Amino acid sequence: MSPEDKKHCCLTLPPDALNNLPENVIDSILMCLPFKDAVRTSVLSNNWRYKWCGLPELTLDEAVWTTKKNLFFHTTEITKIISHILIFHAGPITKFILCVPKSRSCHMIDDLIYFLSKNGIQHLVLELPFRDSPHKLPSSFFKCLQLRHLTLQNCLIIPPPAFKGFDRLIRLELCEVTISSKLLGSLISHCLLLEHLVLHIAYSYSNVVEINAPRLRSFYFAGSIRSIFLKNAPLLEKLLLTDNETGYLGAEKWDIVKFFESFSALEHLCVNMLFAAEAGEIPTRLPFDLNCVKQLYITVDLYDSAEVSCACCLISSFPYLQYMEIQEACCNDGVADHRVELPSDVTFNHLKDVKLIFTSGSIIEMQLAKLLLAKSPVLVRMLIESCRAKGTATVKKLVDELTTFQRASPEAEVVFTKR
């Protein structure tokens, strides 16, 4: 548009155009703005002064608490903002996200939760700072019975005896919350519609958490695998297991057979953790096949015989596997004193794509590549990615060695890349 056209457009624009916008258009505009900017529209005109007070979705996160100099507001300012919401907001709030900076506190959490429980909250995120102790959720929290999505961080959860669960909840995320194993199992089992579960547990429970979730489809768990048992999850399709960055999971035994025996619908498995088990206690394969598993992502220390045994057990039990990604967990340039062995009768008849993320291109890593190439008759591509810098001569040597490996699939392409 030329300057003259812009000038003509401005001259013909009605002076009260903002005030005459339909309510649904105003709502759409405000919903697209960050909370700070939505509140600032109150200066546009008297008609816009309280428009933000009817927003059904509010997000109070780092962007709200940060000053122009990239400093966080003081606790008093955070409290003041929340107080204004409680005073001026009118109408339902279906979605509310509160993320308080770790260096600050919030003294109106209980009042806020009570307010939300009375205004139809369906999607709630509470990420609270962990100071002296986690914040105990008030009784009004357990009256938010329309919740469908719930995320909690650094909270103490003690449900009242009369609490019957969130019977509309579809997604639940708990990160570093404080709750007993019994209450956690009870909370999950009473969410009858639960489909997606995320647990970040920073400690091991003294008792195992039994997860009874008949409609669960995806589960992400970070913590000690010894602490959980999926008692009833017949529809589970996606499972992600990772450690909590505290090292090995301990010396207690983990029953790999018992853990995986109920995953008949599992399609996608990601295992990024260190196993606590003795190599001799792990079977060469599960006594049952998981025929639905199509994708496997696994991180394993190839220099630890117990971990290798665990990984081999799992890999051997997925006959319909189509995609596999294996990452070496440790940087070790030495030569392992054991060999990677799979049962002689295992063939990956459906494996089409493999990605191997190696640290050194060692003998045992190359042995694994050789093994998979020899046992995958429909393989299309094997991508070997090195996560450590190597000289041109070393890379050429690895590539030359890979080209000599026997391939069960004449179509298999081997690609070597560096991160």
What this model shows, in words?
The chain is of the alpha/beta class. Among the domains are: 17-55; 253-330 and 340-418. Helices cover 24% and strands 21% of the residues. The strands form three sheets. It has a 14-stranded parallel β-sheet with strand order 1-2-3-5-7-8-10-12-13-14-15-16-17-18. The radius of gyration is 27 Å and the shape is elongated. It starts with a helix and ends with a strand.
Helix-strand blueprint:
Blueprint: H1 3-12, H2 23-32, H3 35-40, E1 57-60, H4 62-65, H5 75-88, E2 95-99, H6 109-117, E3 123-127, E4 135-136, E5 149-153, E6 155-156, E7 171-175, H7 181-189, E8 196-200, E9 209-212, E10 218-222, E11 228-232, E12 238-242, H8 256-260, E13 268-272, E14 295-300, H9 305-315, E15 323-328, E16 353-358, H10 363-374, E17 381-386, H11 392-403, E18 413-418
Top keywords for this entry?
419 residues; alpha/beta; two-stranded parallel sheet
Summarize the structure.
The chain is α/β, with parallel strands linked by helices and 419 residues long. The protein is built from eleven helices and 18 strands.
